[in-house]
Design a protein that fits this description.
A four-stranded mixed β-sheet has the order 2-1-3-4. The chain is an alpha+beta fold and about 210 residues long. It contains eight helices and four strands, in the order ααααααβαβββα. The termini are far apart. β3 and β4 form a beta hairpin.
């Protein structure tokens, strides 16, 4: 079980770019020999983190438009591709050759999503009022995984405004057990009760008249 992840890489929200990235992601995973594709997913994400997330200057140099196609390809061959597996190096060459290297984060996100689906993993958004300990995350992951019939990968967030409790989102379904929401529900219930009592009083007074 993977009980928590806080990796929120930036990916495109443009539907057309996501569609293109998904095609490349499927092709990448189809090229992986054997059934265990997780190593390829991990290598691609490590590549994005090492050469883009942690090196914005290098990313700007590579994708900023200051290099010709030939200069960019030469830089990749010299500084990047020798550090990658043959599969990933060839994949990066394809993206570069088709001028799609700027989609690398979106491709990585799609590769991760497909890999999770194949492995029966479901990403679950978990919001808490304060950071949770590893044993707490593990217990929550186990319970959520049991409920959804698979492995829950927790994407954790901290929101002090919740006061306490948790908000858990699986797909489009949100389970809100936060104290903030309970207080809001309590206030609503009290207002409705008071309104009903006031209205009842009016009705009573009206009948007396």
């Amino acid at each position: 079980m993977s009980d928590a992840t806080t990796d929120h890489r930036s990916a495109s929200d443009d539907p057309s770019e996501v569609a293109v990235a998904k095609v490349y992601a499927e092709a990448f995973l189809d090229a992986v020999a054997g059934d265990d594709k997780q190593w390829a997913v991990d290598e691609l994400n490590d590549f994005v983190e090492a050469f883009f997330d942690q090196n914005p200057e290098f990313e700007s140099l590579l994708l900023g438009g200051g290099l010709s196609d030939e200069e960019r390809s030469a830089l990749l061959e010299r500084a990047v591709l020798p550090r990658l597996s043959q599969l990933l190096a060839n994949f990066v060459r394809v993206l570069d050759g088709r001028d799609r290297l700027g989609l690398i984060r979106t491709v990585a996100a799609e590769v991760t999503a497909i890999g999770d689906q194949l492995a029966g993993r479901t990403h679950v958004r978990l919001v808490s009022a304060q950071p949770l300990a590893e044993d707490q995350l593990a217990a929550i992951g186990e319970r959520v995984g049991s409920a959804i019939g698979g492995t829950a990968v927790l994407d954790t967030e901290v929101d002090p405004a919740l006061v306490g409790g948790l908000v858990i989102q699986v797909g489009d379904t949100v389970y809100d057990a936060s104290i903030r929401t309970r207080l809001r529900q309590l206030r609503t219930s009290l207002r409705e009760r008071a309104s009903h009592e006031i209205q009842s009083g009016r009705d009573f007074l009206g009948s007396e008249g």
